[in-house]
Design goal:
- The structure holds 2 protein chains of 2 kinds.
- By secondary structure, chain A is an alpha/beta fold.
- Chain A folds into 2 domains: about 1-150, 3-Layer(aba) Sandwich (Rossmann fold); about 150-210, Winged helix-like DNA-binding domain superfamily/Winged helix DNA-binding domain (Arc Repressor Mutant, subunit A).
- Chain A contains 8 helices and 5 strands, in the order H-E-H-E-H-E-H-E-H-E-H-H-H.
- In chain A, about 35% of the residues are buried.
- Chain B has a 6-stranded mixed beta sheet with strand order 2-1-3-10-4-13, with helices on both faces. A 5-stranded mixed beta sheet of chain B has the order 7-6-8-5-9, sandwiched between helices.
- By secondary structure, chain B is an alpha/beta fold.
- The chains are: A alpha/beta, B alpha/beta.
- The interface of A and B includes residues 60 and 82 of A.
């Protein structure tokens, strides 16, 4: 279900994606035959596959060297834990991960993975489906990154507003100013010193609290 | 007796020495005694095991002790309420260093041999010399971000004021640890059995200390299941917990542990030789190919009759784990509800199960009397 939705999403953004340069894919699959047919299916596309048949030895090195845009991995691979940790205890940028599963239960499991976030599961990888799958992964991941950035912007704005409010209240209380005057005083300081309003607020709070 | 609502169960396990309670309960028929038909499904990664539990593809599973908390808080995954009614084992991990790092320690500290358990300060010289010579930082591996292994490595290093900045900590699946140590891709690892013993037997590493040398008797593996599964199937959960507790009791007896090692060694479970499974089970820590083993009686602990509480998921254990997660910076910007431990750790279910176990024992005596 999740999967179909995402395909529709992609239809909109395919044009945009096609304009972007080559994307590097790290494919982790012990099945060499499948890897070969996937590689040839993606010939003449913007995807460039680096295949890792024996991830056991050098996954971390590969991630370091190739800096892949997408990682494609068998959901049953032991290396999943390694990928999982890249963003948690190691300091790698998040990468979209596409997991494939030979079992027919991808819909169930998808609802419980951070679907659309950084990873999701598709059925068995077939050559004719691989390109739309990768397109969708890239589109979803970008969309999520955008949402995440928007969220952190919003959070930052909230923090600023709280700081400004707090400083304003302190000024009103300790300097007996009206709300309007308190705000004007802060705004003037900001303009005169070339600082941001929330930086002025921060300074005021620490000053007024110590006095 | 208990009448389970659901009798067919699929349980997940990772092929490790401390999955013994699940394998023993299956092989010795404890599950069937409680009316359960259990199939054990071998898993290759903790992340996939967790996702399958969340999705209901596994009814219950062996988990790293911090994992039910991580699931409930939504760390590294969407929030899903996971509970634990039973602690399956204590201790069981060890830190093994590559032979190359072992030699580096001897050389930089000007010593002929190390004393075990190895003090972390012996790494300080190695770290500073590497830094001076512009060589890469030491790289240590653990098994999962939310694992005691990770917190134990951090604590051991912190005992010598070595911070995470001084070296790299990465996650490597247990099955790859020995190969990584050998190839030099990592310099040390904290992992469970049989992997430490495997590295030592192969002459690849030095087991510097066990997790028992770092933390004494803290929960390592727990039984994890969805809170919603327990609400829908309370009797199934009691039966499951009782069968596993029975297996833990059976495993307390040292002579039984060698038998357990033989069960574990089969292809469908650990697929490893008794040579590397048995030592930790019988309290022996292999250290180095040319050094004698150390006696660590609590290396793998499943039950203690003089301390009946080790399988109880006590709140204090959960609080300790949360404090470790916080110390590792994993709870930054995370909303941690005040009652999180009470939600996840469920001694109440354990106590109900204990009463059922006692009933069963009384009935057994009546029948045999």
């Amino acid at each position: 279900m999740v999967w179909k939705e995402s395909l529709q999403h992609t239809a909109l953004s395919t044009k945009q994606i096609n304009a972007t340069p080559e994307l590097r894919i790290l494919l982790i699959d012990e099945n060499r035959q499948r890897a070969e047919s996937l590689t040839s299916a993606l010939n003449n596309s913007r995807y460039k596959i680096s295949h890792l048949a024996n991830p056991d030895m050098s996954l971390l090195k590969q991630v370091d060297q190739i800096q892949p845009d997408i990682i494609v991995i068998d959901i049953e691979s032991p290396s999943r834990d390694m990928l999982e940790s890249l963003g948690t205890i190691s300091h790698y940028n998040p990468k979209p991960v596409v997991m494939f599963s030979g079992e027919g239960d991808t819909d169930t499991i998808n609802q419980y993975i951070e679907s659309g976030v950084s990873a999701y599961v598709v059925g068995d990888l077939q050559t004719e489906r691989v390109k739309p799958i990768l397109d969708a992964a890239v589109a979803r991941f970008r969309e999520f990154q955008k949402l995440k950035e928007e969220l952190s912007d919003t959070k930052q704005q909230l923090v600023s507003r709280n700081l400004i409010d707090q400083a304003k209240r302190l000024l009103m209380k300790k300097k007996n100013l009206s709300e309007d005057d308190a705000f004007k005083a802060m705004r003037n300081t900001a303009m005169n010193t070339g600082q941001k309003l929330d930086d002025v607020a921060k300074t005021l709070i620490s000053l007024l609290n110590t006095i | 007796m208990i009448e389970p609502e659901q009798t067919d169960l699929t349980l997940g396990f990772i092929p490790l020495t401390d999955s013994a309670p699940l394998i023993v309960a299956k092989e010795l028929g404890f599950f069937s005694q409680w009316g359960l038909n259990v199939s054990l499904q071998k898993q290759n990664s903790w992340a996939t095991l967790r996702d399958k539990l969340h999705a209901g593809l596994l009814d219950a599973t062996q988990m790293l002790a911090p994992m039910p908390i991580a699931s409930t808080l939504g760390l590294g995954c969407p929030k899903v309420k996971v509970i634990t009614p039973l602690v399956l084992s204590l201790n069981g991990n060890a830190i093994t260093l590559s032979e190359k790092l072992h030699q580096e320690i001897l050389q930089e500290n000007n010593i002929a041999h190390v004393t075990l358990p190895l003090a972390a300060y012996l790494l300080q010289k190695v770290i500073s010399v590497r830094k001076m010579q512009n060589r890469p930082k030491l790289k240590f591996a653990t098994v999962f971000p939310y694992s005691c292994h990770y917190y134990q490595v951090r604590d051991w290093l912190a005992s010598a004021n070595i911070s995470e900045e001084d070296l790299d900590i990465v996650v490597v699946p247990p099955v790859n640890m020995v190969a990584f140590l050998q190839s030099g891709e990592i310099d040390g690892c904290c992992v469970g059995g049989p992997w430490n013993a495997k590295a030592v037997r192969a002459g690849i590493g030095l087991t510097a200390l066990t997790s028992f040398d770092i933390w004494q008797d803290s929960p390592e593996k727990v039984l994890g299941l969805l809170a919603s599964f327990q609400q829908a199937n309370p009797n199934t959960v009691l039966a499951l917990t009782a069968a596993l507790k029975q297996a833990c009791i059976w495993l307390e007896n040292i002579p039984n542990r060698f038998e357990a090692a033989r069960l574990l060694s089969s292809d469908q479970y650990l697929d490893a030789s008794v040579d590397v499974i048995a030592p930790s089970l019988i309290g022996s820590c292999l250290t180095h190919i040319s050094l004698p083993p150390r006696a660590i009686p609590s290396y793998n602990q499943f039950s203690k009759s003089n301390n009946g509480s080790i399988n109880v998921p006590e709140y204090i254990r959960g609080e300790w784990l949360i404090s470790q997660m916080a110390k590792a910076g994993q709870l930054k910007n995370i909303d941690v509800p005040a009652d999180i431990v009470r939600e996840v750790f469920r001694p109440d279910i354990y106590q109900q199960m204990r009463l059922k176990l006692e009933d069963q024992a009384v009935q057994f005596f009546r029948r045999s009397g």
